């Protein structure tokens, strides 16, 4: 909230008003303007002040009597630096004065580095390098052996699957052949039976024709 002596004025003698902007604090003092101000006018003027200014004026109210300042108490507020605080004068009038207090951001200049206490990494010796190489070679051989074993197991599985497929195919062919032979045998038997029935009918027909012929001849002889 930004509040300044040029925008709002408190109507009591020695009143301190504080405004806050981020990390900046605005503080000023104003004097009483009129002792005969009515209560309604005072309330209207108080409504114009921000809520923070009214709250701070209630908490930090100075006594009615204006303190007397000495020459040795004067401080140059144009630009003064006190440790991590900067004070800049904003406005100075007969009714009071205002200045700005700026808090500096934190600094990490004096913080020690974290890696200073860590031990320095030393260079490996020739023996250590040789051991690492031998261990790497051993790991490589183990990986190759595992890979070859996996490939052999995979090929064996493929061979078993292929053999099983061949056996199933042979069994299917055998069963199909047996069914076909059975069907052909049944067809042969049916055909032979059909031929035998046809021959029997033909023989009966020939026998009947022979009997008819003999009867006809007998009738012709009898008529003579």
Task: Tell me about this structure.
The chain has 224 residues and is an alpha+beta fold. It has a domain at 15-103. It is 52% helix and 14% strand. It has 3 helices and 5 strands, in the order ββααβββα. The protein has helices at residues 39-48, 51-59, 126-223, and strands at residues 15-21, 24-30, 80-82, 85-92, 97-103. A 5-stranded antiparallel sheet has the order 1-2-5-4-3. It is elongated, with a radius of gyration of 63 Å. It starts with 14 loop residues before the first strand and ends with a helix.
Percent of sequence in beta strands: 5-15%
Major sheet: order of its strands? 1-2-5-4-3
Q: Could you give the order of the helices and strands?
A: EEHHEEEH
Q: How many runs of DSSP E, i.e. beta strands? A: 5
Task: Please give the count of helices.
Answer: 3
**Span between N and C termini?**
162 Å
Helix and strand content put the structural class at alpha+beta
Which spans of ≥5 residues are poorly predicted at pLDDT below 50? 1-36, 71-82
Mean pLDDT: 72
Rg measurement, Å: 63 Å
Into which percent range does the helicity of residues fall? 40-55%
Most strands sheet: 5 strands, antiparallel
Cα shape: elongated
């Amino acid at each position: 909230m930004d509040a300044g002596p040029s925008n709002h004025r408190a109507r009591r003698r020695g009143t301190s008003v504080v405004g806050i902007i981020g990390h900046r604090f605005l503080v000023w003092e104003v004097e009483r303007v009129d002792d005969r101000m009515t209560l309604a006018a005072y309330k209207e003027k108080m409504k114009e002040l921000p809520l923070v200014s009214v709250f701070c004026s209630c908490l930090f109210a100075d006594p009615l009597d204006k303190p007397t300042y000495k020459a040795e108490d004067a401080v140059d507020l144009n630009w003064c630096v006190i440790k991590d605080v900067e004070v800049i004068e904003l406005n100075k009038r007969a009714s009071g004065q205002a200045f700005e207090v700026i808090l500096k951001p934190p600094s990490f200049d004096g913080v020690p580095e974290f890696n200073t206490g860590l031990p320095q990494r030393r260079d490996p010796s020739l023996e250590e390098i040789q051991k690492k190489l031998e261990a790497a070679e051993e790991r490589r051989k183990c990986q190759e052996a595992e890979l070859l074993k996996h490939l052999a197991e995979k090929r064996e599985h493929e061979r078993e699957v292929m053999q099983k497929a061949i056996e199933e195919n042979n069994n299917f062919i055998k069963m199909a052949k047996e069914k076909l032979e059975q069907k052909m045998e049944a067809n042969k038997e049916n055909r032979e039976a059909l031929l035998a029935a046809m021959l029997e009918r033909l023989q009966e027909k020939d026998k009947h024709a022979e009997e008819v012929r003999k009867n006809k001849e007998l009738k012709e002889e009898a008529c003579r």
